[in-house]
Write the structure tokens for this entry.
Amino acid sequence: MAFVYLGLGTNLGEKERNLHDAVSALGFEVGNVLRLSAFHASLPWGFESPNDFLNAVMLIETNLSPSELLNKTQEIEKNLGRIKKSNVNYTDRIIDIDILFYDNLIIEQPKLKIPHPLIMERDFVLIPLAEIAPDLIHPVLKKKIFELLNH
């Protein structure tokens, strides 16, 4: 079993429901949900939109490999109404599920980078992550999440 931290975000539709639906789907299809942060409002990041985001971070225990997990999270996004996922331009979205950490693995593949390379730039990830795992150590930076948040 692997311990995985996932970042969730939504800025369209019924945002709280979108997050709850994602958590339910992940718990049903990926593994045992161990922790879930509060939902945090944030401004759009990387693009302009009149629609603010609602974000959360969860800890889940899974038997899926990192690549299986990526495929499953993308499938869940699609099933929940996500039209497309872009690696170039950010857009409004019903749901976004990002793999933040997978145990202490460091993966550098074209379609999968773990830990998520933009964690340090995103308070909407660091704040809820610090809420549920302040002492988690970033495997690349070798610092605790609460230290990264306060940096």
Remarks:
- The domain at 2-117 is CATH 3.30.70.560 (Alpha-Beta Plaits).
- Strands lie at 2-10, 31-36, 40-42, 53-62, 96-102, 107-108, 113-114.
